Structures are given as C-alpha cells and as structure tokens.
C-alpha cells in the first residue's frame, strides 16, 4: 500500500457546494465530496435522486444545465454508460480505439479487448455481440485510455442476472489491476456492497450516507445491506 | 364437457395437444433471384406479343425489333453516340455540382446553428419553387447555352440530397454525440467518425432521388431548346412522326436511369454493409 499513500492524500475528485437544477427544480443541492485516488466508490439513490446528474457533472457533459459550485477532476476520465454505445458502423476494435491516437493504439486496443475476454472478436460488428459482450467492449474502450477516473452510470443495469455477476467480477479485477478511481452509479444495493469500498447514498440532493465497506470483515454484507436500505427509506418487510 | 362430471377423463386426454404452427411471417422473406428485372421483361414480352399479333398500330407504337433496328441504325450513323455523349455530359456536370452543393450545404446547416439559420430556410424556399419554372429566368440570366441547363440540373439534384442528408444529420443519436465528447474527439474527428457515417443512410436516399432527378431534368431541358442531345433527337423525331426514334430515346433514358440507380444501390450496399434491415 505504501506507493498509494501519497496519492491518497490528494483527492482525484473534489466537489464543493455543487448545485444543479432543471427548470427550477433543484436536483443537487450543494454536494461536498472528495474521492481519493484509486478508490472504488458506489453512489446509490432512488431514480430521480440526481445520481446521474452528479456523474454527468463530473464527466463535464451536462451542457445547458444550470448550477454552481466548484469541481475538480483528473485529466483522463472515461465513462461507461448503461448502454454500450458502440457505433454500429464500426467494428469492435475501431470502436474501442475511438478517440485514441498514437502508433501503438491498435496494439493497446487488442490488449484491452483480450483483457475483457473479447480477444479474437476484433473484426465483429457490434450487433453480432451479445449484450454482455457489448458492455465488455465498452469497458475495453474506457480502459484503453488508461483513465485516472472511471465513471460508470448503471453499466450493468440492462444485463441479465448471470451476466451481471460475471461482469462484477471482471470490473473488480480490472480495477485491481489498473487502479483508477471509480465512481459507480447504481440503484442496486447488493451490487454496491459487492463491488465498492465505499458506498454513498444520495438523498435530497446531498450525500445522505457515507459508508466504508470493510471487505475483509466476516458476514458484513447483510449488515451493510440493512443500513443502506434504511438510508434509502426501503423496508424489506413492508408491502 | 358435460359428460366429464360423471366420468372424468384421464388427464392425458383432457390436455389438448396443440401442434405448434409457425407464426405468419411479416417480413417479405427470402429474395427471389434477379427480381428487379422480372417486371420489365414481362412488359417487354407483352409488347412484343401485341406487335407480332398486329394488335398495336406500328405508327403509334412500333414493334420492339423496329426500335432495336432504329437504335442500331442511329448508332452506326453516329448521331446517337453524339447525342448520348452530350446528354451524359450535361447530366454529369449538373449532377456533380448538385451533389457537392447538397453535401456542403447539409453539413454547414447540420453542424452549426448559424449555418442552419442561413441555409435551411433558403433551401426550403427554393424547394417550394418548381425548379423547371425557373427555366425562363435562367435563360435570361445565363444565356441559352449549356450553363443554364447544367444549373437547372444542379438545382434538381441538390435539393433531395440536401434535404435527406440534413434530416439524417439532425437525426443522429444524441447518445453518440455524448460519447464523442467523453472520448475527447476533435470536431473534425467527430464529423468524420460519427456524423458522416451516421448520416450516410439518409444521404443515399437523397443520392438516389438526385440521380433520377438529373435524368428527369435533362428530358425537359433538352426538349425546350437544344441542338443536340437525346431530348433534341426525340423532339426532332416528333416533328417527323418517327415514333421509333422517340422510343429509342426513351429506352436510352430508361437504361441510364436503371444503370445509375443500380450503381448507387451497389455502392450503398457496400458502404452500409453494417446495417441489418428489412431488405437484407
């Protein structure tokens, strides 16, 4: 852990008083947040709670949205969306290389595809891939740029349960190898606990709960789950 | 079912077994070989049969073989090749200008709000004016030579190319625009890698309309005032009552249209091979 210590002192993402509103309705109401470099963070919240708004603000793609506050983020940011967003007119490898320059770009693209288990599918069309494979290609596209920050907006939301489990393992493995800071937006409490070291709950436009997940602690999952569901105002017994 | 109350049937007999029947297919299904040529061949056969049995007045509609003979005669005499070449040059020049203008204007109007404000309304206005109605004005402006003919053809061609390309440009999925921003694409790379390929399907629709339009414009223009060209040839034939020559002209126009449309389709299939649509 020693090499990381210095990095951890300097946050990768720093939000102060971040406010965003749509047509007078305040969605983010002065969010203060530091994301340390190399940390895997999950952001939970109800639909409409502003999770995606927060992620899009950090990604810098919330054009035309009214708001204030300060926001710093690293130079190299990658985004994985809920849909794979592969360009249908490009084969898989050119899709992964979108926006990437340099002589070794193709080599890196092939390596990234191999890393997500799509080696040999470089020449396939996106429509020839299954939903899970498309999302892996999207992961490869974001990883090949060696991001300091990886933003993921419900990246597994459209996948079936079995594929999702595999994708969880893949994402965690990729994170352990490359160590970008990750902000994963999800509405799935279990997904957040399984993947992240820190889980945030967005509530009324602010961070309502900031929970550190001790991954080595025994039988912790159920406890975290209850705590998070309570923060989200969901009771498992209620009809 | 009333008898079952007193003597219940065994379950196996109750459960009716439905033979699974395939659902009615809603897509047109597999292509027949050489479908495109079947219709024209049938028309030709009917025409030949009617001529051979004497049901058609040879003065009004000459037999197919008469048309072929006349075509060969005109070709060997050298007038047909000259007229075809003239027509091809006019259509080609007008088409090239119209194509370029259509693409450039569509890009300028689709990619910038200023361009849209300046261009889109003007083109819509231009579209509302029947292009062939501009002929008298263009003759006064550009003289009665080749220039005005090429200008009219260019207008006929650029309008559908502009309209369809512009519609396709504005219809590009916003999610892809967002992706390009996230991936840090430059404006040029964005246009080249996202906008142009995304707009190609619409562009090809416009291209096919434009190609046909160039021939249409040609027919009218060459009959109004010209000293050579297919239209001129047909106009002269009308004066001398040579229906066979008129039909030769029509056949050549038809062939031009068919060949150019087939060529555009072939290019389209190659370029848009990534698409899986109803027609594939």
Q: State Rg of chain A.
A: 18 Å
**What topology, given as strand order, has the largest sheet of chain A?**
5-6-7-3-8-9
How far apart, in Å, are the first and last alpha carbons of chain B? 50 Å
Overall geometry of chain B: flat
Oligomer: heterodimer
Name of the CATH class of chain B = Mainly Alpha
Return the string of H and E elements of chain A.
HEEEHEEHHHEHEHEEH
Instruction: Say which CATH homologous superfamily of chain B is assigned.
Output: MetI-like
Strand content of chain B: under 5%
Helix-strand category of chain B: mainly alpha
What form of chain A results from the Cα inertia axes? globular
- Number of DSSP-assigned strands of chain A: 9
Largest sheet of chain A: 6 strands, mixed
User: Architecture of the largest domain in chain A, according to CATH?
Assistant: 3-Layer(aba) Sandwich
How big a fraction of the residues of chain A is strand? 25-35%
Summed up, the domain count of chain B is 1
Q: Find the CATH topology of chain B.
A: MetI-like fold
Helix content of chain B: over 70%
Which properties best describe this structure?
heterodimer; A: 239 residues; alpha/beta; Rossmann fold; 2 domains; six-stranded mixed β-sheet; three-stranded antiparallel β-sheet; 9 strands; 35% helix; globular; disordered N terminus; B: 280 residues; mainly alpha; MetI-like fold; 11 helices; 73% helix; flat
How would you describe this structure to a colleague?
- The complex is a heterodimer of chains A (239) and B (280).
- With 239 residues, chain A is an alpha/beta fold.
- Chain A has 2 domains: 160 residues, Rossmann fold (3-Layer(aba) Sandwich), CATH 3.40.50.300; 61 residues, no CATH class.
- In chain A, 35% of the residues lie in helices and 27% in strands.
- Chain A has a 6-stranded mixed beta sheet with strand order 5-6-7-3-8-9, sandwiched between helices. Chain A has a 3-stranded antiparallel beta sheet with strand order 2-1-4.
- In chain A, β6, α6 and β7 form a beta-alpha-beta unit.
- Chain B has 280 residues and is mainly alpha-helical.
- Chain B has a single domain, classed as MetI-like (MetI-like fold, Orthogonal Bundle), CATH 1.10.3720.10.
- Chain B has 11 helices and no strands.
- In chain B, α6 packs across α7 and α9 runs antiparallel to α11.
- The radius of gyration of chain B is 28 Å and the shape is flat.
- The two termini of chain B are 50 Å apart.
- The mean pLDDT of chain B is 87.
- The chains are: A alpha/beta (239), B mainly alpha (280).
- Chains A and B meet through β5 of A and α8 and α9 of B.
